[in-house]
Amino acid sequence: MRIDIITVLPELLKSPFEASILKRAIEKELVSVHFHNLRDYTDLSYNQIDDYQYGGGAGMVMMVEPIDKCISNLQSQRSYDHVIYMTPDGETLNQKTANTLSLSGNIIILCGHYKGVDQRVRDMFITKEISVGDYVLSGGELAAAILCDSIIRLIPGVLNNETSALTDSFQDNLLAPAVYTRPAEYKGHKVPEVLMSGDFGKIEKWREQSAQERTQKLRPDLL
Ligand code: ADE
Question: How far apart are CA 217 and CA 214, in angstroms?
Answer without folding.
Answer: 5
